[in-house]
Amino acid sequence: MDATPSWFALQTRYRYEERIAAELKAKGFESYLPTLREIHQWKDRKKVMAVPAFGGYLFARFEPSLGNRVRVLETTGVVKLLGNHGRPEPVPEVEIKSLRLALESGAECDRHPCVEIGTPVKVRRGLLAGLEGRIVRVANRVRILVNVTSVCQAIAVEMHVDDIDLLVASDAEAPGMVN
Questions:
Q1: Sign of the torsion angle spanned by Cα atoms 41, 42, 48, 51
Q2: Which of 24, 40, 110, 111 is most buried as measured by Cβ atoms within 10 A of its Cβ?
Q3: CB neighbourhood size of 80 (10 A)
Q4: Are residues 148 and 111 in the same domain?
């Protein structure tokens, strides 16, 4: 496996994401816990809270040596390192970059099931310039899905169609649109 630092998805115990991120930082690893803003309402008040975008998962960046993998897996609350056939699978840098861009832009983002349908696009201008994902139509709105395939989940962000460039040329108009 390549010795350059890569992002890896970690499955965590329930509600351990923040503790694990802090412990990984203390061990010298870079981690990323994507969060969404949610309004939580009680009888007497409402509060905007940052909650994990993908409950039970976070991302860590490290060189995938055996020693580093063991140090990450020994972190309290880490269930496993996600991958294929017992080997950790790096998360593509573009997925992390697009996820960060969407969640840190201030744009309204929602959880969405991970789907492989939809035209691959890249945002050309605005707060989300550079974001890559798949375009889908949900209730007459155009949304871009930022799929994170390693955790089989996605984040959806609403966009204006004029701010989007297709990544793959197509003769058909918007193939694979979800209605």
A1: negative
A2: 24
A3: 12
A4: yes
Residue 61 and residue 29 in contact, taking contact as beta carbons nearer than 8 Å: yes
Which tokens belong to 104?
Answer: 């840190």
Q: How many domains does the chain have?
A: 2
Q: Are residues 13 and 78 in the same domain?
A: yes
Over residues 41-74, the pLDDT tens digits come to 988 999 989 999 999 999 999 999 999 999 999 9
Q: Are residues 14 and 62 in the same domain?
A: yes
CA nearest to 174, candidates 152, 146, 143? 143
Global pTM exceeds 0.90:
no
- E strands, 6-159, are 6-12, 30-32, 35-41, 46-52, 57-62, 78-81, 83-84, 87-88, 90-91, 109-113, 119-123, 132-138, 141-148, 153-158
Helix (H) or strand (E) holding 21: helix 17-26
